[in-house]
Amino acid sequence: MTTFTILEESSATTVDAHVADGRVRVPALELERALGWELQPEGFCAGTVCYPVPRDGEIVTDDGVDLAAFAALIGRPAAVDAVERAAFLGTPAQERAFALGSLVAPAFTLPDLEGRAHSLADWRGRKVLLAAWASW
Fold it and tell me: Per the structure, how many domains does the chain have?
């Protein structure tokens, strides 16, 4: 058993995990503490939403819940790095599609060349042209 960090958009939680053969298995109670999904007889549940667990024994074993397989089951993209002991679970595709369809840009604040912070929310209700550039 080793410590492992699960990252989401707004949180980071350190959990106990079994790391072997490139797979990360997290005890069900640790997964619930980190992500809010409880393993129940009907499957993984959070609130009123439940995802049935396939009976093939790949996702849930005696060593815990396979983190990458769990993320796939609930429709969340995941980047799992067993060597670095960290994983990032992204926003579900359905939520991203809704956000894109709404045509509302996410809130953010960035500094200008003089270091003054500017928030997109300061311009709400007015037309704004955003220009982005990246060196990669």
Answer: 1
- Paired with 14 in beta bridges are 5
- Residue 67's H or E segment, with its range, is helix 67-73
129: containing domain = 1-136
Q: Looking at the predicted structure, is the pLDDT value of residue 99 above 80? A: no
Q: Look up the pTM and report it.
A: 0.72
* DSSP notation for 10-74: TEEEEEEEEEETTEEEE-HHHHHHHH--EEETTEEEETTEEEPPPTTSSSEETTEEEHHHHHHHT
Whole-number pLDDT of residue 2: 92
Structure tokens of 118?
A: 């500017």
Residue where the block lists tokens 């959990």: 15
Residue that wins the pLDDT comparison between 105 and 88 = 88
Give 8-21 pLDDT, tens digit per residue: 988 899 999 999 98
Q: Is 115 left (phi over 0), alpha (psi -120 to 50) or beta?
A: left
